[in-house]
């Protein structure tokens, strides 16, 4: 969509290209175009690439269009949690979940149900039950009604979430554990199988991405369930990771679960950093994402990779880990981050927007989009994208139209001469890895109502 508003490209940049002799195309060099989106590239490898998404943001066009373009699996971020679906006992509310499921179905996405039994986002009435029989019956009813409501629409259910403690591998001290004991997890899986026999049933947890006491405990549980015929089909590794810390044994860990006869899903991938982001952190993050995707591809039963959100703008990280963020594949402005390109490449894809011209190694391209408008002005956004090579900096030049004046600009450093505004980076968004992009935004006062796109050129550095 953004490309529909493409700005005038610099004639100067075209003149810089030296004339080249044109060789006739050799048949041997003609290749099929590599897949250009995460979901296409994943599909070509027999995988699914998903994201968590929130019903509340679907009305934002950039949010919905990025979701629909890149992902073929959707996990409702909060809409299916117990406190939302059964706020008071046996009184169910599936409104928001139904809406987001409808969106996913219309797009042909697989849906991950998240989650039936979890100690968080649990309504007070359930957390207050102290009799085993009463809690078992409440849990069975919750699963029967919720998984029953969505039966036939859900590819995978996170039946039980986060039931183990960090460090020791002991069970987490939740109301379920205290009141029902160890057996509650298998009771939940049996109830889920009955309610939706077609869905794959997963156990999901964090800090079980590599081999450690916690993942060993989950491994022992899954092994036991398989041996005793308790219905379990998959294990979800949440993969809420920190920068530079992809476990080196992640692939081996996934393989040992796969060898038990279950699928392995990466269910909530994000890789957080201290904010603000800079070029070097983003490059490390790209490498981290590449490692995770490659580890999954190396395990045939690792069939799903799901990131925990589309854009850094709405990521849960800054709320829960103050001072950290920038954990996802798209920046606040839906620009593709280096981690996006690294993930796509690891899947065997190539960004079609990446010119990839080795004869022009320092090149950047840029595009303009109008993000808001009103009678006397508008907001614009410019995205600068590196080609096949890293650039250390960039310059964008906007030539404003008649009556237009920039009254504010963010994520860029402007200098104005007449109607020409030259914009340089603010520091953290100067350095762009191959294929990465940076965006800046601005407000234009246009009392005469002139909404025409300013002329735009860009160059590097
Ligand atoms: C998070 C959501 O992203 C937030 O919006 C919400 O406020 C809290 O929960 N592990 C999980 C997810 O299994 O359900 C959590 O989602 C993130 C950690």
What is the topological layout?
Blueprint: H1 11-16, H2 38-44, E1 48-53, H3 61-70, E2 73-76, H4 82-85, H5 95-106, E3 110-117, H6 124-127, H7 132-149, E4 156-161, H8 175-180, H9 184-195, E5 200-205, H10 213-228, E6 234-237, E7 240-242, H11 250-258, E8 263-274, H12 279-297, E9 302-307, H13 317-320, E10 324-325, H14 338-346, E11 364-374, E12 377-386, E13 395-399, E14 405-410, E15 413-417, E16 420-424, E17 437-445, E18 455-459
Parallel strand pairs: 1-2, 1-9, 2-3, 3-4, 4-5, 5-6, 6-8, 7-8, 8-9
Antiparallel strand pairs: 8-10, 11-12, 12-17, 13-16, 13-18, 14-17, 15-16
The structure holds (3S,4R)-3-hydroxy-2-oxopiperidin-4-yl beta-D-xylopyranoside.
| First-last Cα distance | 27 Å
Quote the average pLDDT: 91
Strand content: 15-25%
Q: Please tell me how large the radius of gyration is.
A: 25 Å
User: What's the total count of β strands?
Assistant: 18
Residue runs with pLDDT of under 50 for 5 or more positions? 1-19, 356-361
Identify the CATH class of the largest domain. Answer: Alpha Beta
Q: How many domains is the backbone divided into? A: 2
Strand order of the largest sheet: 1-2-3-4-5-6-8-9
The residue fraction in helices comes out at 25-40%
CATH superfamily of the largest domain: Glycosidases
Task: Count every helix, treating DSSP H or I runs of 4 or more residues as helices.
Answer: 14
Under CATH, the topology of the largest domain can be stated as TIM Barrel
**Attached small molecules:** (3S,4R)-3-hydroxy-2-oxopiperidin-4-yl beta-D-xylopyranoside
Structural class: alpha/beta
In this structure, how is the largest beta sheet organized?
Answer: 8 strands, parallel, barrel
What is the molecular shape? Answer: elongated
Which CATH architecture of the largest domain?
Answer: Alpha-Beta Barrel
């Amino acid at each position: 969509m953004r490309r529909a508003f493409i700005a005038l490209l610099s004639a100067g940049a075209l003149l810089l290209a030296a004339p080249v002799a044109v060789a006739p195309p050799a048949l041997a060099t003609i290749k099929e175009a590599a897949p250009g989106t995460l979901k296409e590239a994943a599909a070509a490898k027999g995988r699914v690439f998903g994201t968590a998404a929130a019903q509340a943001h679907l009305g934002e066009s950039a949010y919905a269009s990025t979701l629909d373009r890149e992902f073929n699996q959707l996990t409702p971020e909060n809409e299916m949690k117990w406190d939302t679906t059964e706020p008071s006992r046996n009184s169910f509310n599936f409104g928001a979940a139904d809406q987001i499921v409808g969106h996913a179905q219309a797009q042909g996405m697989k849906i991950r149900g998240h989650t039936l039994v979890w100690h968080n986002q649990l309504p007070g009435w359930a957390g207050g039950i102290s009799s085993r029989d009463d809690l078992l019956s409440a849990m069975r009813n919750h699963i029967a009604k919720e998984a029953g409501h969505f039966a036939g629409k859900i590819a995978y259910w996170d039946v039980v979430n986060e039931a183990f403690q960090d460090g020791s591998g002991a069970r987490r001290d939740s109301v379920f554990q205290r009141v029902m004991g160890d057996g509650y997890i298998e009771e939940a899986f049996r109830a889920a199988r009955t309610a939706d026999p077609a869905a794959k049933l997963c156990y999901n947890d964090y800090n079980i991405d590599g081999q450690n006491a916690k993942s060993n405990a989950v491994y022992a549980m899954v092994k036991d369930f398989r041996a005793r015929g308790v219905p379990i089909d998959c294990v979800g590794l949440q993969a809420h990771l920190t920068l530079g810390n992809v476990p080196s044994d992640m692939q081996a860990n996934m393989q040992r679960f796969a060898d038990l006869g279950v699928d392995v899903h990466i269910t909530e991938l994000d890789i957080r950093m201290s904010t603000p982001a800079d070029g070097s952190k983003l490059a490390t993050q790209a490498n981290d994402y590449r490692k995770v995707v490659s580890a999954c591809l190396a395990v045939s039963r690792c069939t799903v990779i799901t990131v925990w959100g589309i854009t850094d703008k709405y990521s849960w990280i800054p709320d829960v880990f103050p001072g950290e963020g920038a954990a996802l594949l798209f920046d606040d402005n839906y620009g593709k981050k280096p981690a996006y390109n690294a993930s796509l490449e690891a899947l065997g894809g190539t960004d079609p927007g990446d010119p990839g011209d080795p004869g022009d190694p320092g090149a950047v391209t840029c595009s303009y989009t109008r993000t808001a408008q009103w009678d006397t002005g508008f907001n614009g956004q410019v995205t600068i994208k590196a080609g096949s090579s890293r650039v250390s900096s960039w310059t964008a030049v906007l030539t404003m139209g008649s009556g237009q004046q920039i009254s504010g600009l963010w994520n860029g450093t402007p200098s104005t001469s007449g109607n020409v505004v030259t914009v340089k980076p603010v520091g953290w968004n100067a350095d762009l890895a191959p294929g990465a992009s940076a965006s800046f935004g601005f407000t234009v006062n246009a009392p005469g109502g002139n909404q025409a796109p300013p002329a735009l050129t860009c160059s590097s550095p």
